[in-house]
Amino acid sequence: MVVVVGGVALEEPLPDSTTLIHSHPGFRETASHLLAIPSKIVGPVGLLYVQQREMAVTVPHDKNVSIIGTDDVTTCVTVVLRHSGSGAVCLSHLDGAGVEEAVMNMVSRVQELAMGYPEGRLQLQLIGGYSDPHNVTEELFYNILHSFHKQPVEVELINLTLGELNTTVRNGIHWPIIYGVGVEVKSGDVFPATFPDKGPECALRSARHLTGGHQGPQVLDVYDCGLGLLRIGPFNYHPIRGVDLWLEQPDEFILQHLSTSPEVEPPHFVMQMRATLKYIQEHPFPAVTVFRDNRPHYYRRDEISGTWTPFRY
């Protein structure tokens, strides 16, 4: 099937984001509406946070998750796919790795959870990413759009808040306007957001995409909404040679060499990178020291505190 905009199927070759935005002015209106919403600081209670190279899917009657979201998006793209009839929604944070497989899994999971609902359409929103100097976002946008266009179902693109629509200029430098979004699971409403609490085992999860090592899918599905369990791993990653030397470098060196967009990273970027490098230093082979017996780490929502707590499954 195809990606549809305003009831009309996109023709091949697919357009770049600028052409698509200019030929469909409705995207400017949708983006303006989203950008006008004040950004919310979202706490951990009821939150399912999705890290880079992760995806998660849930449904409106999930008693464990009320908001699904991600942030720290600069050249990456947040993908939100929702079935308008059932309310089943999937969010992913894509950086270019494993895009085609991730899109296929997103469509499959949402369709699976929407089964039994005769009414409704698959609606797609692409948010985050800006007009960066190396066109990283633009290339990623095209790969995502092309991957959805190849799916055996019709997908309606309803929001395109990226590229030029998510860019402002300060002192001659292009900056993203929105760095993160949340989705209200019950209503499907999307809003700008930041998430001080990024869920359990943040450094371990970051280590996987920082090193480029993985087993299985490059974009991990981290949540089972049927069981209400957040699942981390098992996976392995490649040790970083000279990680001790990395940790001795000044902040500016780490910023310049570990970011695709060093001029516009949020203030906590280097601190998070140091925590991740420290974790890799302490656990160079997670398949041995972290995921013993090749077992995932499970977390479930604590009914009293509302936060994720370890669970033996």
Automatic annotation (TrEMBL):
GO terms for molecular function: protein-N-terminal asparagine amidohydrolase activity. One of its GO terms (biological process) is ubiquitin-dependent protein catabolic process. It comes from the Eukaryota. GO terms for cellular component: nucleus. PANTHER family: N-TERMINAL ASPARAGINE AMIDOHYDROLASE, PROTEIN N-TERMINAL ASPARAGINE AMIDOHYDROLASE. This is Protein N-terminal asparagine amidohydrolase. It comes from Apolygus lucorum (Small green plant bug).
